[in-house]
# Entry
Amino acid sequence: MAIVAIPSLMRDLTQGKAEVVIQGSTLRELVENIEAQFPGVKDRLCHEDANGVRISPYIGVYVDGALVEKGMRSPIGDSSEVHFLPAISGGSES
# Structure
């Protein structure tokens, strides 16, 4: 099962847990299984458009230190470590 790091802004949904252990062989399965255990997580991670459910463009997903490029089809290994990181933007033009 994968170890999933929970961002601090989502820990209200995981009873304050910073990490959870979740089953899933793809990112889609992992998200569905997190949602089953901690309702509301999927709404914060995903959005739905004409092509279906996708990870929000404002969230970066890293599996074993690498940014996922296959979206919800990205493979998750049995001992993978998964991080959902909010995108950071901003700055100013000089």
